[in-house]
Amino acid sequence: MNNNWNNENEILDHTGQAMAVPKTFVSNVMVLMALGLLISGVLAYLFGNSAELFGLLYNLETGGRTALGWIVMLAPLGLVFGLGAAYRKFSSNAMILMFVVFSALMGMSLSSIFMVYSAGSISLTFFIAAGMFGTMAVAGYTTNTDLTKMGYLLYMGLIGIIIASVVNWFIGSSSMDYIISFIGVLVFTGLTAYDMQKIKQLGMQIDHQSEDGRKMAVMGALSLYLDFINLFLFLLRFFGNRN
């Protein structure tokens, strides 16, 4: 395969025949991301609406986390780093399994939002987040503008959010919490477009049917999954009605 381009969605192979590589790769990424969100959503709903299941994560009398609750809270972060490290060591099927486990743990962890916010406001916020995410994903895929510089600024903003969140954990300022949430919405809205453009560009350079192509599809799905979940959670602070 060479790098002779027919248009933004096709590449010519050694026979000169056009192949829709980027679209296929992006479709694979989106299917995996949707699978992850479906798993997380179902488990979040089940654990959030069942006292028996929720009790596996939290002590219903004291409100403290159980041993499983701590695992569910901490394990997803480990799996995010693990997926990056697994790229060279594990097969694409193993990485997909890790992504599924990650999505399941995230779903159980997110079940706590049903204890804080009303189901109606969670549903409304989900659709708002989905609309914003979809709009920015399409923008990132279709724009001819290079978003690399914007991406650097957004990642700097993300680091700022993390630092400010840690500081506010000790301060407990509601005003700072809203400011962090507002900046978080902006950052993850922008990152959705930036990550989608990167995924499209990657699809132009990699064979989506190869082992590396399947592995990169998992990593792309993870990036977009995290963009959506964080956008949803920051929006929930604005639109969520507390119980």
Describe the structure.
It is built from nine helices and three strands. 75% of the residues lie in helices and 3% in strands. It has one domain. The protein is globular and about 55 Å long.
Features:
243 residues; mainly alpha; 3-stranded antiparallel β-sheet; 9 helices; 75% helix
Number of strands: 3
Low-confidence stretches: 1-19
**Strand order of the biggest β-sheet:** 1-2-3
- Helix share of residues? over 70%
> Helices and strands: which structural class?
mainly alpha
Question: What is the CA-CA span between the terminal residues?
Answer: 57 Å
Helix-strand topology string: EEEHHHHHHHHH
Tell me the count of domains. 1
Q: What is the number of helical segments per DSSP (H or I, 4+ residues)?
A: 9
